[in-house]
Amino acid sequence: MTARREPSAPPTLPGYRYVRLLGLGGFADVFLYRQDLPVRDVAVKVLLAGSLDDDVRERFQTEANLMAQLSHHPSIVTIHQAAIAADGRPYLVMEYCSRPGLAQRYRTEHVSVHEALRIGIRLASAVEAAHSVGILHRDIKPANVLTTDFGWPALTDFGIAATVGQGGGATVGMSIPWSPPELLAEHPTGDERSDVYSLAATIYSLLAGRTPFEVPGGSNSAQDLVTRIERTPLPQLGRQDVPPALFAVLERAMAKHPSRRYASAQAVARALQQVEADLGLPVTPLDLPDVPLAPDDVRQPAQSDDATRLRPVIEVAPSTPTWAAVPEAPTSDGLPVLDVPAEEPDEEPSSGRGRTVTAIVSGVVVLAAVIGVAAAAMNRDDGPNPQPSQEFSVPGDAVVGQDVPSPTGLSGTRQSDGTFVFTWTNPQPAEGDRYLWGVLSATGDPELAFVPTTSVAVPPTGDDGQVCIQVTIVRADGRSSDEPTKACAS
């Protein structure tokens, strides 16, 4: 297996002095620089020289523009500058956050209910702010929530964001453990309620110390996770200090069908504020511009949705992903599973306001056509007369007992820029076939994603210049190859 690739050389930037490497990504590296005037530390995200095709440049420009549009919000990363270095590489300069982000914390710390509620409400205000200007984040997860020097969460990495109205299409990239069922369907669709699901899944991870449908000590492949996300009731958190009302909020926000979720991130925040009030905790205020505020009376019914109705914006082309993250090594604690989903509350509590600043950008960039997998039909009640915009495609029961072949002829060749192009053959192609693939490493399970074609491009990842991948055929009905095909190239 291979080690991680060497970092790219930090560019020379006028007015900044290089300090050290912060992180590596598939198509960009993040460095710590010291700005000369005003004097401060900043995080600089720099595209790799070998990834400067038109699609990646467009994704990078989209990320810069969206972050600039939203970075005035106290719980969204602040961007200071976007430019082209002397060596031709685009870069973003952002405010640097030195404290551990949620990706590190949820695996290693016991996060209190009080803090999880406070973080959840502040993140919900950030998501609502994005929605209010017509932007869907589409990849809310712990790795995309950094922590400012003052302890505030800061949402980052809008690289695969889309404008409202585009919804979730075949080009949507997402991290499977925190993705809603409608983004994992054969024909992905999504709206604000998809971000609501991922927001709640992130809060769940903070409380549980694992991803929502991860089975401690069990099999947690991408196929396993997708099947559970689509069919399995949300597992209990396994903590005695989490009140039933909080679990009920998360359960509703993560309902299988979008029509059963909260209609907005603001509604999630109000419900979390109600939990705070019921527990006798100080109610965390929200940062929501032009919203009727009631910080001292969170028990009031929700205000009119007109206050936060989404406004049309200029259409921004979505980015193209490379691979979707799968969970880290599972924890060892066993968790019971609910037999019946909880009843939905009839009303939602009200809102308030608050404050924060910024962070660095997540290093991993997703690139490839992620069209999701429907491993089996969801056992769910769609509810009475759902609207067409609330529907998402789920195939019928998966056919069992019919073998799906493994790919053949998998091989890779190194290109002049160091990128490896792997190709393979589907010996028995069928309509709707797609391919689950990932880069193998010595540190754990591969990061997996779906592509519709029989080839992928991979940047070099090891000191020895070798890259190894695995590929599985996935049918439209959810069946897949019994064993992935693996190959290396150097």
UniProtKB/TrEMBL annotation:
Record EC number? 2.7.11.1
Q: Does the keyword Disulfide bond apply?
A: no
> Which controlled-vocabulary keywords does the entry list?
ATP-binding, Kinase, Nucleotide-binding, Serine/threonine-protein kinase, Transferase
| Molecular function GO labels | protein serine/threonine kinase activity
Q: Where is this region: Disordered?
A: 321-354, 380-418
Composition bias of kind Polar residues appears in 408-418
The residues listed in the UniProt record as binding ATP, with positions renumbered to this chain, are K45
Q: Where is the Protein kinase domain?
A: 16-273
The record's annotation in SUPFAM superfamilies points to: Protein kinase-like (PK-like) (SSF56112)
Q: Name one Pfam family in it.
A: Pkinase
What's the protein name? non-specific serine/threonine protein kinase
Give the originating organism. Answer: Cellulomonas edaphi
| Lineage, top ranks | Bacteria, Bacillati, Actinomycetota, Actinomycetes, Micrococcales
